[in-house]
Amino acid sequence: MGLGRVYDRLSNCQGCSECYGRGPRIPWADANDTTAEWICPTLDQFKVLSHTARGKQFLAMEVAQGDLPVTDDLIQIFYSDPGCGLCTSICPQLSLDFLKAMREEIAERGLLPEPNRKLDLNIRERHNIFGSPPERRANWARGLKLSKKGETLYFAGCYASYRQPSSAQAAVKILRACGVETAYLAEDEWCCGLHPAWSSQRNIEVEMAYHNLEKILESGAQRVVFSCAGCYSSFKTRYREIAKLDFEIMHMAELLVELLHNGRLQMPDGHKKKVTYHDPCHLGRGHLGKNSEVYMAPRELLKSMDSVELIEMAFNSRWSYCCGGGAGVVSAAYPNVTKSMSQKRLKEAKEAAPILLTTCPRCIENLMDTAKEQHLNISVKDLTSFLAEEMGI
């Protein structure tokens, strides 16, 4: 574990500078501009090369060789990186694998940041990231009369279950309007394990995975649908490395596009609203979605609505700027970093439209909290909830 599992690859960096040498805010680069403009959020935040993918790979190699102590400053470098993966979009180096390995090394030395340790303990003991009572997990579904068995199962996730129930309710109502009945796991649903996977506690993630997969098998589901980009990513990537999955995995946006194509989803008319869309890191970029980069589905939904005018931000799709949450790792250990990144994203969004939509509850919470704190006049909404409002259900 730790750096030992990646040691043979730590010296593979060729020093080409591509992970920090592009983008309008880094004018001193010598790399050819062969991609769309982009900005590394951590370099943009700290303005120091040790926060780039190249810098972190070099630091990890120094630690692995015993030439560099693990200090508080070093821990900050590796735990203030949201793991958005822009660097892996332009470089074949497995930068995020090195990031995770270094976090494992830090945790094995007993130096895991205490806020992250607390969240992982919540997940292990109470099966949700907030430490809320497990018996309250299914409260969002009261009155919906959902079955625990069915062909299509809706996996709500911690955020929809405890903090954003309207998004889960909207998903079920829209699917019912399209003739799709969904089952759910109720209190048997556990956290997907995204936070421990990124904080370095893989054993907790594996425990969550085996439990969830066992309960899904008992439900008889052939298709599992997610509104949460993080839960989707967990199942789409790491769960497949843990066990064989015998069911289809879909994000809500993907399923809604499928229903739109076969005529079962009828888009509403209404007063024209200008909106912009924020791409969650865990719903795009190949390193997280295993080549299932869900960029077009949300946009196709929005463009099919006569009541909506979609205005893109400058940094979108693969080059989208991260909200800074980092699977809850950064927002827990270094909340000011998350706030700073969210603020930059919100300012970009405000220039585009008064309504910011996204498909990740973590992004919604980070962006919404920052907008409120900074008194930014912009509405942050879940895409599915927005669609339900437009449909009047």
Determine the structural class based on helices, strands and strand pairing: alpha/beta
**Shape, please?**
globular
Which whole number gives the mean pLDDT?
91
- Strand tally: 7
User: How is the CATH topology of the largest domain named?
Assistant: Rossmann fold
Q: Care to describe what's here?
A:
The chain is α/β, with parallel strands linked by helices and 393 residues long. It folds into three domains: 2-108, no CATH class; 114-261, Rossmann fold (3-Layer(aba) Sandwich), CATH 3.40.50.1860; 273-391, Rossmann fold. It has 17 helices and seven strands. The strands form two sheets. It has a four-stranded parallel β-sheet with strand order 5-4-6-7, with helices on both faces. Strands 1-2-3 form a three-stranded parallel β-sheet, with helices on both faces. Strand 6, helix 16 (361-373) and strand 7 form a beta-alpha-beta unit. The radius of gyration is 21 Å and the shape is globular. Mean pLDDT is 91; it is low at 23-35.
Topology summary:
Blueprint: H1 41-46, H2 53-64, H3 72-79, H4 95-108, H5 114-126, E1 152-155, H6 157-162, H7 165-177, H8 194-199, H9 202-219, E2 223-226, H10 229-242, E3 248-251, H11 252-261, E4 273-278, H12 286-289, H13 296-303, E5 308-310, H14 329-333, H15 335-352, E6 355-358, H16 361-373, E7 379-382, H17 383-391
Parallel strand pairs: 1-2, 2-3, 4-5, 4-6, 6-7
Helix pairs in contact: 2-4, 7-17, 11-13, 15-16
Question: Can you tag this structure with a few keywords?
Answer:
393 residues, Rossmann fold, four-stranded parallel sheet, three-stranded parallel sheet, 17 helices, 45% helix
